[in-house]
Amino acid sequence: MAVKPPLLQRGDTIGVVTPGSPLDANIINARAQTLRDMGFNVVFGRHVYSYEGIVSASAEERAEDVMNMFTDSRIKMILPTRGGTGVQTILPHLDYEVIRDNPKIISGYSDVTILLNNLYQTSNLITFHSLLLIDFRPDTPSYNFNQFFQTTSTTTSPKAIQNPPDMPLRSLVPGNVRGPIVGGNMTSLVNALGTPYEIDTRGKILFLEETHSPTNMIFRYLTQLSLSGKFQDCLGIIMGQCTNCPVSYGTTYDELINDLLVPLGKPLMVNLATGHGYYKAAIPIGTNVNLNTQDNTLTVLEPAVSP
Known about the structure:
An 8-stranded mixed beta sheet has the order 6-14-13-8-9-10-11-7. Strands 2-1-3-4-5-12 form a 6-stranded mixed beta sheet, sandwiched between helices. The chain is built from 9 helices and 14 strands. By secondary structure, it is an alpha/beta fold. It is globular. Helix 7 packs parallel to helix 9. It has helices spanning 25-37, 59-71, 96-101, 113-123, 142-152, 186-191, 215-227, 230-233, 253-261; strands spanning 13-17, 41-44, 75-80, 105-108, 127-129, 159-160, 170-173, 176-185, 205-211, 236-243, 268-272, 283-285, 288-292, 297-300. 28% of the residues lie in helices and 23% in strands. It has 2 domains: 13-152, Murein tetrapeptidase LD-carboxypeptidase, N-terminal domain (Rossmann fold, 3-Layer(aba) Sandwich); 159-300, Glucose Oxidase, domain 1 (3-Layer(bba) Sandwich). Strand 4, helix 4 (113-123) and strand 5 (127-129) form a beta-alpha-beta unit. One of its GO terms (biological process) is proteolysis. Residues 178-291 form the LD-carboxypeptidase C-terminal domain. The active site is at 110 (nucleophile), 209 (charge relay system), 276 (charge relay system).
């Protein structure tokens, strides 16, 4: 059984780290103030403001910040400032046994995807494909905050993951499967293929989303995931949005899904609001879900946090 971190409550302390690309200090401070206004305490990692070009600091320094948050008894949640690039470089420097013994909520998306999935695969820790620090701002849609806190701060179950009312989920291949949910950003997952940190989809429900990639690149990503057996191994597939993804060769994102994924015959749902989209559903990585593409529902079957 996967390890569930203790739930988040007002008054708890959130540890902020920058595990990938740097973020402007003024933005970090403004978003941290939003957390304080919500009733949380905030602690910064030593290298949260660092800047070394593409990444904020060395892989060892960024990993040290993450590990310090896991071992600090004050911290209830670890919140990356952003994704960007380079998160996968910290993976060899983490102590996964220590992480398993000190479970904390950790949330994010984009390049943080590979960290979330590896903490589940290696430390057996439930993680959260949900908000980053940059999303804690006054104009963030209430849907996003509701999703985040309903998943990290309550033990209600089962719980349906529902899109905003004006953004219906759609199912393209009928079926009904149950299993742990894994996945996230396609770029992050494809970049890890062929490494010790590639995603394991065997007996899992796989969800994917992407941003700022033309559809010829999406074609490559989906093909690489297929050739590496990730679609063949999984129980079902959920496709999120491809935000700001230009059409290439007259072929749209939806057409790629129809051409490449529908023929696999796996239960297939599309249009999930998550990741880089304006609306962001909270997906607890490693929890058991029911994907029912006959009645078009996605249900988390167990709490993602412990009381």
